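anyone seen this seq b4? input:
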Amino acid sequence: MKRDLRGLHLLLVLLAATFAFGKFQGGFVPWFLFYVTLSLTLYAGAVALGALRNVDVTRELSSKRLTAGEDLRVMIRYRIRSHFPLSWLYFREESDVKHPGQGNLIFGLQKAGEVTYSIPRMPRGRHVFEGIRVTSGDLFGFVKKQMTAGGREEVLVYPRVRPIRLWLTTNDRNAGHSFSLNRISENVTSVVGVRDYVPGDRLNRIHWKATARGQGLKVKEFEHRTTNDFLFVLDRREWSYGDKRELFERAVSLIASLIAYAIDRRFSAGLVSCGKKHAVLPLGRSQDHMLRLFEHLATVEPDGKEPLSQTVLREAVYLPAGATLVIVTPLLDDPLVQAVIQLAYRKIKVELFWIADPEDRPKTDGRWLGTLASLGVQTTRITDDNFDEALRGGISDGIPTA
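predicted toks r here
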C-alpha cells in the first residue's frame, strides 16, 4: 500500500508555526488558526492510518472470450469492512485497453457498492487486466493512500468471423485426407448405379436383384460426398502491410471466416503462420480444432521477416495430396507469383486472396492475374469486409473483388 503524506507533513509544519504564532502574538485569531490547523492535522492523520484498511475489491468480466467488435462489460464490486468512514474512492483499471471508463470516482459513505462500465468494440488480441488501482484520501487532498486489488485476468478476443454463404472452390485433384475419411459417410438412400463385385466389397452392398438376373455379383454404387482439404497461409511480413493496420486485420478476419466456412461443412483446415515465431497447425475438422486455429489468429501480428514465397514452397512439400493451398496476402510480388506458378506446374491447387487497398487500382500487382488464371489459379481481390460478395463474384477491372 502506498501513501502520499506530503500534505500531512505540510500540516505539521503549519501546526508548529500557528502554535508559535499563538504563543508570541496571543489573541483570538492566532489561536483560532492553530485549532483549525490542529483539527485538519488530526483528520489527515486519521485518514493516513485508517483509510483503505479492510477494503475488498473484486472484478467481474462479462466474458473472457469475445469476438472482435463486441463489447466487454466490467463490474467492480467493493466492500468496506472497517468502521472508518471514507469520503471518496477512485478506481482505475490497469490494462492494455484504453477506454473512457478506465477511471471511476465515487463519493459517499456507503459500505458496499459496485461500478459498471463497458469497453466498446474490443480489438482482436490477448488483453490483460493486471489489477485495480484503488485510491482514497481526505476531502482536502492532504493525504492519499493507494492499493492494488483484483487478480490478473486475461480476455482473448478472436478475429471477427463474417458470414460466407458460398465459396466456389473445387479441387478436381482431390484425393486427400478429407476425401478418404468422407468415403465412409455414403448416402445409403441414394443409389446412383451398380457395378461388378470386386474382392473387398462389403456384403451389405450387394445388389441382389441385379445379381439374380444372372450377370454375376453386382454391388450398389452410392452417392459420395466430395470435399476439400485447405491449408491456409497468412502473410505476416512487416513490409507487406506497412502502416495500414486495417489491411492486416482484414486478412486475419478473412482467414478466420474461410476456416469457419470450411469446418462447418466438414472440410479439413490447417494454418501456416510465419512471424517472429513459425507456426504450422495441421489439418483438422473438429470444432475444438477450429478454436485452436482461432486462438492462434487472435494473437498474430505482422512481424515476420521471411519471404512469403519461401514459406509457401517449403510448406507445399508437406501438403497432403488433393489439398488446396489458400494464400492471403496484400502484396503480389514477383517471388510469390513465381512460387505459385511453380506449384501450379506441379499440379498443386492454389487459391489467392489479394487484400488490396480500396484506394489503389490494380497496376503492378494486377499484371500477373492473367497468367495465374491461365494456370487455374483463382485470384480474388478483397477491398472491404464484405467477403460474401467477393466470393460470389463481384467484378472490378476484370478481377474478382469485393
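The chain has three domains: 1-158, 188-223, 229-400. The longest strand covers residues 125-137. kinda curious what u guys think
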